[in-house]
Amino acid sequence: MTFPGTLDLSNEALRYELDLEKGAALRTFGLPDGAEWTSEDRPGREFAVFACGQRIDGQSAGLVVLGVDEQKDESPLSGSHSVTVKLRHDPTGLEIDSHTIVYRGTPVAEKWITVRNTVDEPVTIDRLDSFHLSLPLDEWQVLAYKSDWGAEFAPIVTPLRDAFIAETRQGRSSKDWHPWLTLLGSRGDLLTICPMWSGNWVLRCEPEEDGSFAVSGGLHDWEFSKVLEPGQQADSIRVVLTLGSGGDLNTVSIPLARVGRTHWYPRNELSRSLPIEWNHWWSYEDKIIDERAFLDNVEVAARLGMDICTLDAGWFGPADGQSEWYDYRGDWQSVNESRFPGGIRVLSDAVHGKGMKFGLWCEIEAVGKLARLANAHPSYVARRDGESLGYLCFGNPQVREWAFGTLDRLIREYRCDWIKLDFNLDPRAGCSCTDHGHGAGDGLFEHYYGYYAVLDQIRAKHPEVLLENCASGGLRIDLGMMRHAHTTFLSDTDWPEHGLQVFWGATTFLAPEVCLHWSYSEWLGQHPHQKFKPNDPALLPHQFDFYTRIAMLGGFGFSQKLPELPVWMLERIGYHIEDYHLVVRRFILEADLYRLTAQPEREGKGDRWAAFQYRMPEGNEHLLFVFRLSGAESERNIRLRDLNSDSLYELTWLSAEKVHTIRGAELLERGLLFAELAEEDSALLYIRELPAASRL
């Protein structure tokens, strides 16, 4: 068999070349006019497999190239170039397929491996690194995000001088760290790495003998092992590598969003409509929500022009008003008749009768300590060393069948248009049972592949239903999940500076339309920063507009006692809903997003101004959100991006009687001065390029 000595996957936005002379090595990786990301002296080893007491990588002795499969999709807007290098490691008899996809017109590459056992006895895999890159010598910085409940997307910036590891061992992808790491070179070169996985992952930056660094990772090897029987194979998780320049994260996030929209994100008619949501949770929880309260909110939501009403936790379980929802997760066949005497279909029919969609919360993976499900089906429960982990093992085919049947029934019987899928616990290393269809060391690995399969099955059976990903808010946000769910909830908490911080962080790898968050909510419970009180006499309209517009940056929702809001506040909500429907929505769905300021941070830290520019693909229309946070300097020049310097632009302030015409060069170089915004104030501008005749 003959095959080329090199494989060139380059495109107009990326240099990417593989050397197959001795195994598989990355020869060239960089932007067309940018720096080289591979070391001249140490070729990238492409991947690593740890098995049979050996490390096997793309340069290991005894590795033989068996062949190459190559596919090119020449579609102008959604093309890609895919290559699979087929290898055999003679000392172990393992076959390894190294997969790479480069997306047309972007600096985005997706990598993973498949390992196949071709010998006559079982082989144990202890580690699967989806990629390995040897960096050239430079003064590198690492950018990453720490994460916890209500504290998502906390930025870390540190020089790379010693080993640096970003990881989660919690079993949820964005608990402890978000699955995102960026290397920044001394000349502004950027490499962003995103594991596409919802469980445990790791990214390692490790020093080499010559002072340089190697970067590798993918699935976390902590407590992981997988036994491959003869003829069996396993895929590693996928990892996305994206290059940027100028020290500007927009150069990375924009191509990632474009590829997500074109290749990764599931879409349906409802998700493409970006529905505005009301959800009962924070203002009612499961303490005071009932049929009457829900229906009263439905009446107001319909008058305001909202699109969907979602019933969150508290609808299921024993027929009393005192049960704790957490204890009865899994008993989805029951309805709390004390709170909802007419059943759930009464609520759904009322919502549909008002021309809106109906949403329902479900934690399909979890099993509460008092749930009848655990006693009826003890083999469904994920256990480690015999102890229940509080969730159902989706590595078990019986659980997958049950979960699909349960969700299918909820959707059909309650006429659900939206399912909010939550997950409120940390599986950590996951299930170690050996009678579920997985081994002792790969329970969590198989759980997530099983969960993805159920989501895909539901979307196939109910293509019109929108699936929302949630995990204690934002503790399972990753590009793996976003191949199976339509939107992801960014965080349970939503006070203003936090809302801006998490949206800024999430959009470094997600498109804005898949980022769902609510405006500043009135909480029934206590939180040191959730202080919104709608009847506070000191609360001014411009502050309420500020709170609401933060949620309008992406997927848009409310969690309020709508019938109890002041009349003026309801009028402002109606106004913002109209703005969102008529103006904002199409920009969020189609435009490139530029973060024009640094990241705001909680506790008064970070940038105290926030500005976001949405640029439509044709380049002639833009939308600009500007926010002045508490503690900000009194004025700021906001410089726009990617305009035609010779053109005139008409700027229209929404909600203000104000129109200006400014040349593109001035907006690019000097910027637009905001000197009249109060603290906790905002501006929303529609910007259009004027026709050539008007420039004279």
How helix-rich are the residues, as a percent range?
A: 10-25%
Beta content comes to: 25-35%
Number of helices: 12
Total strands: the figure is 38
For CATH, the homologous superfamily of one domain is named as: alpha-galactosidase from lactobacil brevis
Overall morphology: globular
The helix/strand class is alpha+beta
CATH C-level class of one domain: Mainly Beta
CATH topology label of one domain: Beta-galactosidase, Chain A, domain 5
Q: Cα distance, first to last residue?
A: 65 Å
Question: Which architecture name of one domain does CATH use?
Answer: Distorted Sandwich
| Average pLDDT, all residues | 97
Which regions contain 5 or more consecutive residues with pLDDT less than 50? none
Largest sheet: number of strands, sense, barrel closure:
10 strands, antiparallel
Structural Rg:
26 Å
What does this structure look like?
Helix 7 packs parallel to helix 8. This protein is of the alpha+beta class and 696 residues long. Strand 22, helix 5 and strand 23 (357-362) form a beta-alpha-beta unit. The mean pLDDT is 97. Strands 6, 7, 8, 9, 11, 12, 14, 15, 19 and 20 form a ten-stranded antiparallel β-sheet that branches. Among the domains are: 6-264, Beta-galactosidase, Chain A, domain 5 (Distorted Sandwich), CATH 2.70.98.60; 594-695, Sandwich (Immunoglobulin-like). It contains twelve helices and 38 strands. The longest helix is centred in the C-terminal third of the chain and has 24 residues, at 567-590.
